[in-house]
Every structure is written in C-alpha cells, then in structure tokens.
Amino acid sequence: MTSAVAQGNVPVPTQARGRPSSLTRSRTRSAWAFIAPSLIILALIAGWPLARTIWFSFTDANLNNLSDYTFIGFENYLANYDGEWLGLLTDSDWWHSVWNTVWFTLVSVSIETVLGIIVALILNAAFPGRGLMRAIILIPWAIPTVVSARMWNWMLHDQFGVINDMLLRVGLIAAPITWTANPDTALWTVVMVDVWKTTPFMALLILAALQMLPGDIYEAARVDGVHPVRVFFRVTLPLIKPALLVAIIFRALDSLRVFDLIYVLTANSRDTMSMSVYARQQLVDFQEVGVGSAASTLIFLIIALLVVITLAAGRVRLGEDPR
Asked: d(Cα 17, Cα 114) in Å, to the nearest integer?
C-alpha cells in the first residue's frame, strides 16, 4: 500500500481533487443566506444612487428641474462642436483637480504610513501607561473631520491663529502667513491637517497586525544577536505586509474622494480643489447635474482602477493568503 501510494497508483478520491463536499456546499448556501439581506440593502443604498448618477452623466439634467432632461450621450464627457472640443475631459479645472487629488493622496498616505508604523511600534512596546497612551493617540481620529478642519482653520488664521503667533514669537517667520489662501502653502496645509487626523487610524491597523505576530521569532532573533533594525526589515515588515497594504488601500480610497477637509479649509479654491469638490461645484454652484454626475462617475472609475492596480501590484488575492 505504501509503495502504491508513493508510486501514485492509488486513485485520488473525488473530494480530494477539489470537488466541494455536501457539508461545504451547505455551509456556502448558509453563508449566502446570511449575507443576502446585507447585499440587498447595500444595492439599494449604494447601487441605485450610483446607477442614477451614471445615468444622469449622459443627460443635460439641471438642478432646477431634475425631471426635465434629455439624453445627450457622451457630450458631458467629450463633444465636438464646430471643430471645437468641449466637455469634462477638456476642462483644465477638472484635470487640475485630478492632479491635486492624486498629489494629496500620494503625499498624505505616504507620510501617514511611515508615521503610523513608527507610532504602532512605540505603542506595541511595553512601558508604563501604554493603555492610556493608546487611548490618547486615537483622539484626533475620533474628532469629526468637519470639526477638526474648522479647529485647524482657526489655528491657522493669519491674524488670530495660534500657529502664526507661536512662529512669530520664536522668530521663524517675519510676518503672518495665510496658510490656507497662499497657493504655495495651501495644499501642504491640507496634507498636514489630514496627517494629524488620520495617522492614528493607520497606527491602529498596523498595531493590530503587530499584536498578532508570534513572539518566539523575536526571542530567537534576540538570542542570535540580530540588530533590531534588521529584524524590522527582515521579519516584522514582511509579516505585517498584508495588513499594511489593506491600511494603505483604505486610506488611499478616503484620500481620493476627499471633500469635507479641503472644502472647509479652502472652500472652492482652484489651488486645492479635489475631484469631489469639483463635482460639488458643478452640481450645486453651477446646478449642472449632468456635468457633476459625469465628474462623479469618473471619480468612481478612477478609484476602482487604482484599487485594481494596487491589488495587482501588491499581489494580494482577496480571500487567499498572499504568495
């Protein structure tokens, strides 16, 4: 029998070849039955508005009368009138908002990832008051975005803000700076506020991954005299990579659709306008529902495309262990 198995002469059962058993099929049906209500609710509250937005992007709908509109095809995106190209894809303000959003996402998520790893490593160490420190570090993330943006708006005020006052007292600046109105500092100011608010979120997810790591590998590294920096890059970082990628994807999604933080800090300023702020401007200020819906549809497509690229680049298989 042993030799037959070794030679591969024993037939492999059907179940072993990958066909699911009756128990597995039963569990699968039960799982679908449990999640079906959630999927239906999700389709109603998310799928229907998305489909309606995509539909409006192909119309000339106006906010004054949403029931009176005409199907115009792709004219909101790109159209040629008497040899002149018009539409969203020819609007320099739209492409500027795309650049602002992508730049904001790359810079803010990169800084938050680095700071989140550092904070998570500190909070993962054993020291007196660690539990209190973990609670305190989450305060910026717990504050609503609109509240924190308004708070920072006052702190950064060029006349009454505490930031300018402190910098003037220590002699780092000679005159007050209009942080949110100056084109050279506005976008960096938004990044700074976003980093202050959402770094705790990154630290929380990374800390959860660190808490799951086995301690024996670190004990073995300590006994072998491996330098802590080498342990981090050779052991810790590869082990937390799946959780780190999930955290980066979540933050990238939030950053790509950022609206409230930028709108409260800088309103409709072209220097900091994100894609969502642009879509809001078209929908509300200009009352062009068709153009605003086209911008919203492109935001959805851009985010979906970047998520697919990120998953493929990180070789993350949903529902499977990374290889």
From this structure: 44
Please say whether the beta carbons of 245 and 264 come within 8 A: no
Rounded CA separation 278/80 (Å): 23
Q: Token pair 């569990």 is at which residue?
A: 27
For 269, other C-beta atoms within 10 Å of its C-beta total 18
Q: Which DSSP symbol is given to 80? A: E
Distance from C-alpha of 198 to C-alpha of 257, rounded to nearest angstrom:
14
Separation between Cα atoms, residue 226 and residue 16, nearest integer Å: 43
C-alpha span between 281 and 38 (Å, rounded): 33
Measuring CA to CA, which residue among 141, 185, 144, 137 is closest to residue 161? 185
Q: Give the span between the Cα atoms of 260 and 147, in whole angstroms.
A: 10
Instruction: Inform me whether the pLDDT recorded for 38 exceeds 80.
Output: yes
Helices (H), the chain: 2-7, 22-42, 48-56, 92-124, 130-137, 139-142, 145-155, 162-169, 186-211, 216-223, 228-231, 237-256, 260-266, 275-280, 289-313
The phi, psi pair for 71, rounded to 5°, reads: -70, 125
Q: What's the CA dihedral at 292, 266, 252, 200 to 10 degrees?
A: -140
Tens of pLDDT, residue by residue over 152-168, are: 999 999 888 999 999 99
CA angle 145, 42, 208 (to 5 degrees): 55
Q: Mean pLDDT across the stretch 74-87? A: 89
CB-based contact 261:32 (threshold 8 Å): no
Q: pTM of the predicted model, to two decimals?
A: 0.82
Q: 293, 259, 260: which is closest to 275 by C-alpha?
A: 259
Closest CA relative to residue 140, chosen from 186, 189, 185, 203: 203
Q: What are 259-272's pLDDT values in tens digits?
A: 999 999 998 888 99
Q: Which residues contact 322 (CB under 8 A, 6 or more apart)?
A: 241, 242, 314, 315, 316
- Three-class SS of residue 234? helix
